[in-house]
Design brief:
- The chain is built from 27 helices and 20 strands.
- By secondary structure, it is an alpha/beta fold.
- Among the domains are: 189 residues, no CATH class; 78 residues, no CATH class; 152 residues, P-loop containing nucleotide triphosphate hydrolases (Rossmann fold), CATH 3.40.50.300.
- The chain has a six-stranded parallel β-sheet.
- Strand 11, helix 21 and strand 12 form a beta-alpha-beta unit.
- The longest helix has 37 residues.
- Bound molecules: adenosine-5'-triphosphate.
- Adenosine-5'-triphosphate binds next to helix 5 and helix 7.
- This is AAA family ATPase.
């Protein structure tokens, strides 16, 4: 541990002082939790009507609604405080220079941690939240641009520390001012940072607040209205950046972002389980984390599409086809409208009505709004007639006319009420409807691929496929804007979303912003994006900047070099990753008898268990059953992350589920089988090759795929 200390003091003295400060912080934290608990109890007393008699307390929760809000607030505060995971109270310290260049911070010292610690809410903080504006200097200050920082101190803590003083194991000072600054190490040369990056991985993903790198910090702290797209090579911290940006936005813009709601989208439950603890560890508990499919209205999936139909239903053209199918219901009026009013009868000529419908159609409001607009304009025409005859009629008259049977019947004929089920069932169940809506967009063969072989008796009895749920969501969105809408959405593995999935996301973030994370080289779905501009347009944020990340924190250089060999064959323009990690090993296990491969894999796993950290066996889905048998025969019971089993030492994973996950030691079984698993096989192999943190073993009986050699 380096220890650039104040002249005249030793590293030991410094550690003693810092340990003293830890005790101060912990005591303050304990008092804050106690005080919050007490306020909850008092709050509960007020709520239950047990007034203390002190007039000062009257009105604290004067009416029922505010009392309830107060109670809720206090409860959540206490819960959050008491459930805050124990851990080091701080990880860094900034000492600012005494001179003008430090502005309002001159001569100040700040400790930086996962959350703010103070003696009481209005006291100056003992520890600043990492998201506070001053903390930015901790991540961004360099010897060239110190921004008034004299020394950046990093603290080393025992692994898994609960944050007691004894767990502080070291500290590292980086002088940034003056002559010393010119030779200062950058963050990556820090032993504490390197140790954090190289530490063995077990269990779910952890936060990276102590070691966020400057280029990552720029993304984390981009503004709430800004949508950004991160094109990041494997292990460059895309997921970490997205989650930390979410935490940053919630802290910095609570009104805008927290009230609007924050959503994190990931590809599958194994991945969501893996990342689920990061935001809570940063104190953010109310964030929804799910898959795009979970956003769609729940319906039983009772049908399966052929490959071609699935691809068509996920494609962008479908949005136009559906819009045509919906608006095919809007008809030009074909006769004048007569509306009885007592003994009188108002008449509206056909051409006026026609204009109302045409103009409303041209305004392109949501379908349901369009119907109400036609109603309102029809009533306005009636009112004009009535006014001429007998002076202005009242609001009650207008309501009566609007709801009259004649006007409703007219609306039903020109702009009928409709459900998404009716529109989609009518389209997929009728060759004529498909031909009309698909004209010039879908070839006759494509129309046939979409057509249901049996037409359901009614839309209610239709059997929907998984892809149909997207079509239903699209039509529902055309009829009315979704009620569910988010202030910010983080979309991970965004390269894998289909245009129609992107649109489902865009509909739910119309007034918000997006953090789009992905890697075109890791696209494994049939509809994976080939470039970002088109994908961002489907997501409703064509203006988003695409920012590359290329410094890899996971995969060691020797392994990334092998993976990079595949890039040429993947047909995407992405900058290759460069690894920060010179350590790590890559080993080939060549097996001559294919029947022996699974046993050889089990043996390699047995050996790997001798070292620290997690182990994963990854293979094509068809091979995993055989591998499980071989592992069990060797006395190893692997966990399945898709079943939420993240804590097992050994994981058995089909290649399809490897995305976004990482393990210290990966045994990859028969890469040729993964490479051949469909048109995106090589992309899948690229994903699998980039999951190892320290060691990759490639076991194969067949030759390696050509692109890997
Ligand atoms: N600044 C950092 N300090 C320490 N660890 C980091 C840092 N940035 C990323 N990491 C670690 O590197 C690993 C990879 O990060 P992450 O999973 O976010 O990358 P990714 O770009 O999403 O990868 P992939 O595309 O392969 O899924 C994680 O263990 C993460 O904690």
């Amino acid at each position: 541990m380096t220890g650039d200390t104040t002249p005249g003091t030793t590293l030991g003295d410094e550690l003693t002082d810092e340990r003293g400060y830890i005790d101060v912080c912990r005591a303050a934290l304990d008092r804050t939790v106690d005080a919050a608990r007490e306020r909850v109890l008092e709050g509960a007393g007020v709520l239950a009507g047990q007034h203390s008699g002190d007039p000062a307390e009257e009105g604290v929760a004067g009416d029922g609604a505010s009392a309830e809000a107060l109670g809720r607030h206090l409860r959540s505060q206490a819960k959050e405080l008491s459930e805050a995971p124990e851990g080091p109270p701080f990880f860094g310290r900034l000492d600012f220079v005494p001179g003008e260049e430090a502005g309002e911070h001159r001569g100040q010292r700040y400790y930086i941690g996962r959350r703010r610690i103070a003696e009481h809410p209005s006291a100056p903080p003992l520890v600043l939240d990492w998201r506070a504006p001053v903390s930015r200097a901790f991540y961004q200050a360099t010897a060239r641009q110190p921004g008034g920082v004299a020394v950046r101190r990093r603290f080393g803590w025992a692994p898994g520390s609960a944050g007691t003083a004894a767990d502080l194991t070291g500290l590292e000072d980086e002088p940034l001012d003056g002559a010393a600054g010119a030779t200062a190490q950058d963050g990556l040369a820090s032993r504490i940072v390197a140790g954090e990056i190289e530490r063995p991985r077990v269990g779910p993903m952890r936060d990276i607040v102590a070691t966020i790198q400057p280029e990552q910090d720029d993304l984390v702290r981009s503004g709430p209205a800004e949508s950004v797209c991160v094109q990041g090579a494997p292990g460059t911290g895309k997921t970490a950046v997205g989650l930390h940006r979410a935490a940053y936005l919630l802290y910095t813009y609570p009104r805008k972002v927290e009230r609007g709601g924050l959503l994190v989208l990931g590809p599958n439950s194994a991945f969501l389980g893996y990342i689920s603890e990061v935001l809570p560890s940063l104190g953010e508990v109310g964030v929804r984390q799910c898959r795009v499919d979970d956003l769609l209205a729940e319906r039983e999936v009772r049908a399966e599409d052929g490959q071609e139909a699935v691809a068509l239903k996920h494609g962008a053209r479908m949005a136009i086809v559906l819009q045509r199918a919906l608006y095919a219901r809007v008809r030009a009026p074909e006769e004048p409208l007569a509306v009885p009013d007592g003994s009188y009868r108002w008449r509206l000529p056909e051409d006026e009505l026609r204009r109302v419908v045409e103009e409303t159609r041209a305004q392109a409001p949501p379908y349901e709004v369009g119907r109400e607009r036609v109603r309102a304009r029809t009533v306005a025409l009636l009112r004009a007639l009535a006014e001429r005859r007998a002076g202005p009629p009242g609001a009650a008259w207008e309501r009566r006319m609007g709801r009259s049977r004649a006007v409703t019947r007219f609306l039903d004929s020109v702009w009928p009420r409709v459900t998404p089920e009716e529109v989609v069932a009518e389209l997929l169940g009728s060759r004529e409807a498909l031909a009309a809506a698909g004209q010039g967009l879908l070839s006759p063969d494509e129309q046939s691929a979409l057509l249901w072989s049996v037409r359901p008796r009614s839309p209610r009895s239709a059997k929907w496929s998984a892809a149909d749920l997207l079509l239903l969501d699209e039509v529902a969105g055309l009829i009315r804007h979704p009620e569910e809408s988010y202030g910010h959405v983080v979309v991970d593995e965004a390269q894998d979303l289909s245009p129609m999935q992107c649109r489902a996301v865009a509909r739910r973030s119309r007034f918000g912003s997006l953090t789009v994370l992905g890697d075109l080289a890791q696209g494994t779905t049939p509809w994976a994006a080939g470039d970002w501009p088109a994908q961002l347009a489907h997501l409703g944020v064509p203006e988003a900047d695409v920012v590359p990340l290329t410094t890899g924190f996971r995969v060691p250089a020797a392994i990334i070099e092998t993976a990079n060999r595949l890039l040429g064959a993947l047909n995407v323009a992405v900058p290759p990753a460069r690894s920060l990690r010179p350590d790590g090993t890559l080993r080939h296990i060549r097996v001559s008898d294919p029947a022996e491969l699974n046993r050889a894999v089990a043996e390699a796993v047995g050996t790997a268990l001798g070292s620290e950290g997690s182990v994963a066996v990854i293979a094509d889905g068809a091979r995993t059953a055989g591998l499980r048998t071989a592992l069990e025969a060797a006395g190893i019971t692997p966990g399945a992350p898709e079943a939420g089993e993240l804590a097992e030492r050994v994981t058995l994973l089909p290649a399809d589920l490897a995305k976004g996950l990482e393990y210290d030691h990966v045994v990859l079984a028969e890469p040729a089988e993964i490479a051949e698993s469909g048109p995106r096989g090589l992309h899948r192999l690229y994903v699998v090759l980039t999951r190892a943190v320290s060691r990759l073993e490639i076991a194969h009986a067949r030759d390696l795929p050509h692109a890997m050699r």
